[in-house]
């Protein structure tokens, strides 16, 4: 109902404008206009006629402004006043304004020589985010919350959400995800600023990979989680086809470059953010989004084998084979302050071919992990609301 | 945006396969969604801060403490802050912030242009000269430019006359390059929601009438201005003196150190809570402490009471404006109140 704050990126609103509204703010616009109408009636006297001039200096849309005006007119009538521009007893000039915490109706009322200012406020709320459908990439809203979402996994008929402060288990209830249990996370040291985490589910058991913390848990019969300090390698999947063990740098947001392949080969490459596997003539290749900004290809021996044009820092492999080779999804380059997008690429002959149009997100993608089959989990920080929104993005061949 | 690969570019990319080809690629853009660790943010500021301890260190530098710790201090000249590995919310992405103090606005702008620094303050004149692609960060209008009368100007008619004589629109258009807002309120519109109720009026005829009704001895006074820190302020003071002359007042502009009857001051909104902000402004401006309020109407009444008698004449609400180099990412690094928030910034070329 209420539009986003236009003057400031909403991330500012969320992070910096947590001010307590003046305590008298009403819950919504209707309550505020009723309050204002009561004050007006007390000033002009019941049964009086009033003229009303309106203006909007807030960020609310013309339609919302119109709704407020209609609600005020109705509230005036309920308070025993008549709106009449011909020889009114009272003249009202009402301005719809706003502060970071609330919307404000400012009424300059005049009755003869008497002037008075009345105000009524109602609390601001954020708009809901609406996912948009993709073309070759199907984007489905999974979950939204205030705290960062590091990863989401789906053990049998349930949903696990990994956040900086906890792991929460959700179950379907009346078609909605309802929280069943949650276990708090206790990091051995403060989390890195750009915290990353990953879930890996095997049946009812799961592992949570976090910087400097190794956790094992289960969801059946109830949610359990045991964590200990440790810097063991994370398991990076690429669809269901390939695995890579990679050591994460505990106080940073990247892998330090030490990797172990499925064949047991250990290598050290430059630090990287994310990895995805592709195939060339039946031989696996790995594509790594490096910390230096490049996207590099490594062969089965993890020797450098080429490079791709710059992608964003998060990539994920899938099992989808819509054209030549497997599809890799990549974020786009950016600086974390603008809406992000995911695009599917086919990597063949060590060349990346973009597939159709990217799918857009309401903010920067903060987490991207392979999910089942042709899908990936993408989490974006909504720039309008400051909330974290998780999507399941599926590569759909032929769309 | 990604490049959309054409067949020819696909061929080129195929030819680039291999280690050598990778080495021959252009330098990486470092343009990635995920923040980079490492690197130094070079900042320049006009103010010369002599003492590191708050509140003398100001609203900007004091906000660095927490994510960063001071590692080098040359009072009034230079400060270097290093990232705190155990900072709340995690270690900042930057390794350090290197601040050069006492830089005139024009020099700051030149340094930014020459790539010598990453972040500078921009005044109205410098803002006009920035290239269209310049990355700008602006706070809310948090700096209040106001005239504050001392006790010697006892006649309220003289104070009101000056309020009516000032041509705010001309100053705003020319000297401030339309930066910020004209206002007759202490609290800016974005914070109170009702500042428009204090819309200032210029009425030279009424000002003249008020002056004419006042004793001749009250018509001449000095206007103090600190022209060392706020360059446009001196020009604004001169313009106010001219406006005052039109109303029959004799105003002499003098440096702030001199004994001034009225001062042109710049004060800041220090809180995003309107009640608290008003109380702080009243304190700084030497006005009576307003009552604690819990409704917008009561806040309005409190502000109106502070402005009665024209002891303080608000003129403009101005934002802090910064220019940033293109290598600064994760912006903006200031809050709506103009405080520095550098912990989420990173720079291209930073080494992990």
Going across the biggest sheet of chain A, name each strand in turn.
Answer: 2-1-3-4-5
**Low-pLDDT segments, ≥5 res of chain B:** 1-31
Number of strands of chain A: 29
Helix content of chain A: 10-25%
Q: Beta-strand level of the residues of chain A, as a percent range?
A: over 45%
Q: Termini separation of chain B (Å)?
A: 25 Å
The CATH topology of the largest domain in chain B is Dipeptide-binding Protein, domain 3
In the CATH hierarchy, what is the architecture of the largest domain in chain A at level 2?
6 Propeller
What is the H-and-E element order of chain B?
Answer: HHEHEEEHEHEHHEHHEHEEHHEEE
Report the radius of gyration of chain B as a whole number of Å. Answer: 25 Å
The largest contact between protein chains, plus residue counts on each side, is:
A-B, 78 and 64 residues
Which value, in Å, is the CA radius of gyration of chain A? 27 Å
Helical region count of chain B?
Answer: 12
Taking pLDDT < 50 over at least 5 consecutive residues as the criterion, the unreliable ranges of chain A are 1-21, 126-135
The first-level CATH class of the largest domain in chain A is given as Mainly Beta
Relative strand content of chain B: 15-25%
Describe the structure.
The complex is a heterodimer of chains A (399) and B (352). By secondary structure, chain A is mainly β. Chain A has helices at residues 10-16, 29-44, 62-78; strands at 49-56, 82-83, 90-98, 102-111, 114-123, 137-145, 151-153, 158-162, 166-173, 176-184, 198-202, 205-210, 213-218, 224-229, 234-238, 242-248, 255-261, 266-268, 272-280, 283-290, 295-298, 304-308, 315-317, 327-331, 341-348, 351-360, 365-370, 375-381, 388-395. Chain A has 2 domains: 10-123, Rossmann fold (3-Layer(aba) Sandwich), CATH 3.40.50; 137-395, Neuraminidase, CATH 2.120.10. In chain A, the strands form 7 sheets. Chain A has a 5-stranded mixed sheet with strand order 2-1-3-4-5, covered by helices on one side. Chain A starts with 9 loop residues before the first helix and ends with a strand. Mean pLDDT of chain A is 85; it is low at 1-21 and 126-135. Chain B is an alpha+beta fold and 352 residues long. Chain B folds into 2 domains: 33-118 and 325-346, D-Maltodextrin-Binding Protein, domain 2 (3-Layer(aba) Sandwich); 141-319, Roll (Dipeptide-binding Protein, domain 3). Chain B contains 12 helices and 13 strands. In chain B, the strands form 3 sheets. In chain B, strands 5, 6, 7, 8, 9, 10 and 11 form a 7-stranded mixed sheet that branches. Chain B has a 4-stranded mixed sheet with strand order 1-4-3-2, with no helix packed on it. In chain B, strands 12-13 form a two-stranded antiparallel ribbon. In chain B, 42% of the residues are buried.
């Amino acid at each position: 109902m209420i539009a986003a704050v236009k003057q400031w990126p909403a991330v500012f609103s969320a992070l910096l404008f947590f001010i307590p509204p003046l305590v008298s703010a009403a819950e919504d616009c209707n309550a505020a206009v009723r309050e204002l109408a009561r004050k007006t009636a007390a000033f002009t006297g019941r049964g009086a006629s009033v003229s009303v001039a309106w203006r909007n200096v807030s960020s609310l849309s013309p339609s919302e402004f119109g709704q407020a005006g209609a609600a005020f007119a109705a509230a005036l009538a309920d308070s025993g006043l008549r709106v009449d521009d011909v020889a009114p007893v009272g003249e009202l000039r009402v301005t719809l304004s706003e502060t970071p915490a609330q919307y404000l109706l400012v009424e300059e009322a005049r009755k003869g020589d008497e002037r008075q200012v009345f105000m009524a406020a109602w609390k601001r709320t954020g708009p809901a985010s609406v996912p948009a459908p993709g073309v070759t990439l199907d984007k489905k809203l999974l979950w939204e919350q205030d705290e960062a979402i590091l990863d989401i996994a789906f053990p049998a008929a349930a949903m696990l959400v990994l956040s900086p402060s906890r792991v929460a288990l959700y179950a379907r209830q009346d078609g909605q995800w309802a929280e069943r249990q949650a276990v708090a996370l206790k990091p051995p040291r403060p989390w890195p600023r750009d915290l990353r985490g990953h879930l890996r589910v095997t049946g009812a058991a799961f592992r949570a990979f976090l910087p400097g913390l190794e956790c094992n848990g289960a969801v059946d019969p109830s949610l359990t989680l045991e964590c200990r300090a440790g810097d063991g390698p994370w398991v990076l999947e690429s669809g269901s086809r390939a695995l890579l063990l990679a050591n994460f740098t505990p106080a940073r947001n990247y892998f330090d470059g030490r990797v172990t392949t499925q064949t047991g080969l250990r290598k050290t490459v430059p630090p990287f953010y994310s990895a995805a596997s592709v195939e060339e003539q039946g031989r696996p290749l790995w594509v790594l989004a490096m910390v230096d900004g490049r996207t590099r290809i490594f062969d089965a021996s993890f020797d450098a084998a080429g490079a791709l044009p710059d992608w964003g820092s998060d990539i994920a492999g899938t099992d989808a084979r819509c054209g030549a080779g497997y599809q890799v999804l990549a974020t786009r380059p950016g600086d974390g302050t603008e809406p992000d997008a995911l695009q599917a690429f086919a990597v063949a002959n060590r060349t990346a071919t973009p597939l159709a149009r990217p799918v857009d997100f309401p903010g920067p993608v903060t987490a991207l992990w392979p999910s089942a089959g042709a899908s990936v989990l993408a989490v974006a920080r909504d720039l309008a609301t400051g909330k974290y929104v998780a999507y399941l993005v599926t590569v759909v061949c032929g769309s | 945006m990604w490049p959309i690969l054409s067949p020819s570019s696909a061929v080129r990319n195929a030819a680039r396969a291999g280690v050598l080809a990778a080495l021959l690629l252009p330098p990486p853009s470092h343009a990635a969604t995920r923040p980079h660790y490492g690197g130094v943010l070079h900042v320049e500021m006009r103010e010369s801060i002599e003492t590191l301890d708050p509140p003398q260190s100001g609203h900007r530098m004091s906000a660095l403490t927490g994510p960063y710790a001071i590692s080098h201090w040359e009072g009034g000249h230079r400060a270097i802050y290093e990232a705190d590995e155990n900072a709340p919310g995690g270690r900042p992405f930057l390794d350090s912030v290197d601040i050069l103090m006492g830089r005139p606005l024009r020099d700051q702008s030149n340094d930014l242009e020459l790539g010598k620094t990453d972040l500078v303050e921009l005044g109205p004149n410098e803002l006009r000269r920035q290239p269209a692609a310049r990355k700008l960060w602006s706070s809310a209008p948090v700096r209040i430019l106001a005239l504050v009368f001392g006790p010697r100007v006892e006649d309220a008619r003289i104070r009101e006359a000056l309020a009516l004589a000032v041509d705010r629109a001309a100053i705003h258009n020319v000297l401030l390059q339309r930066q910020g807002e004209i206002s007759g309120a202490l609290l800016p519109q974005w914070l109170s929601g009702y500042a428009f109720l204090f819309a200032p009026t210029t009425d030279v005829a009424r000002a003249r009438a008020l002056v004419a009704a006042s004793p001749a001895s009250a018509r001449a006074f000095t206007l103090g201005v600190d022209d060392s820190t706020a360059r446009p302020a001196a020009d604004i003071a001169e313009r106010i003196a001219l406006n005052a002359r039109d109303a029959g007042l004799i105003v002499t502009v003098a440096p702030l150190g001199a004994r001034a009857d009225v001062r042109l001051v710049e004060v800041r909104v220090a809180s995003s809570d309107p009640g608290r902000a008003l109380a702080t402004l009243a304190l700084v401006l030497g006005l009576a402490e307003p009552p604690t309020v819990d409704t917008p109407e009561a806040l309005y009444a409190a502000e109106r009471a502070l402005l009665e008698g024209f002891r303080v004449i608000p003129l403009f609400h101005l934002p802090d404006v910064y220019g940033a180099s293109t290598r600064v990412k994760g912006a903006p690094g200031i809050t709506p109140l103009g405080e520095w928030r550098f912990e989420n910034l990173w720079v291209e070329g930073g080494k992990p």
